[in-house]
Amino acid sequence: MKITISIIKADVGSVGGHEIPSKRLIETIENHVKKEGKRLLLDYKIFHTGDDTGILMSHIHGVNYSDIHKLAFDAFVAGTEVAKEQGLYGAGQDILKNAFSGNVRGMGPGSCEMEFEERPAEPFVLFACDKTDPGAFNYPLFRGFADPFHNAGLLLASDMAKGFEFTVMDVNYTKGDRVITLKVPEEYYDLAVLLRDPEHFVIESISSRATGDIASVVSTSRLHNIAGKYTGKDDPVAIVRTQKQFPSTGELLSPYATAHFVAGGDRGSHIVALMPCKLGAIISFFDGPAIVTAAGMCVHNGIFTEAIDLFDQPFWDTIRDKASEKTYGIREQGFFGAAMAPMEELEYTGVVERIKQLDSKFSIRRSDK
Ligand code: F6R
Ligand code: MG
Ligand code: MG
Fold this sequence. Notes:
The protein is an alpha+beta fold. It is built from 9 helices and 16 strands.
């Protein structure tokens, strides 16, 4: 059966700062999807990671189907009403436009979708991050798909021997979606030089070169540029199909053991280690650290199984400790050098404005004195 899986997510309000959506907000979003999505959806699930709520949907309408996007958009609008009633922080933050115009892209919510013919067994993982941006997935997806140190299947299994094709977006280009497609292993180094700069070049999708099957999609967009100013980090989600012609679930989780440094954390403006957390995790230290959750599921005839919590396993306790130590390590140097995000990634204008004011006070010392 050919199905589409869509995940559309947004931060429309949270309790105690930008920590976690309220129960009522989540219920409101769920009730809306349940009622209005009856004829449209095969199945759905509601997730939340940090202050972001995600609506995972299966259907037969393909990607960019307007009614699916409207369903999610209206659910977030309904959630916004509750957020306002409850006085939640950031109520309606990711609803940048009021009038729905056919697709949530550019309207605030993040989204990614994939259409595929279901395999007899169809395992996949829904990754969701908070307090960081889509470039956070560059490192784990690059290593999970292209590096035999993590994806041993590249060496051991014949299904993946031809490698993968990566589509990467230049998110700094604002006039349209500027993308490039690169094949690994042949163009491995070309891909590496782009992905090393995760605030500029961001993985959008990955597909199998052996079968052409879509393997992964990320909610990569030019959002923070389209909006003209930051309204919060465009906290990303990704769907990754696993096993057989794709890396195994464990191979895809493996790179998260690095707890790699990402831009995010407090005021979306710092460098912190990405901490793999349990589903439903909240935000705490230094408005962070940046977190990632992983929900493992199977889908059959468009019906989802229950989700298992892939980071809820003793191995990841050690990695959480490591992530805390790495984050605390860099936090100790405050705002100096590498500890604060690059100028163009700062969510606030304070630094830039202050430098502008100081500009006129600079003088050029005469060299003959
Ligand atoms: C992401 C997130 C942060 C905030 C940023 C600014 O979910 O919440 O990136 O957008 O910390 O938040 P304010 O200015 O609302 O304190
Ligand atoms: Mg937020
Ligand atoms: Mg968020």
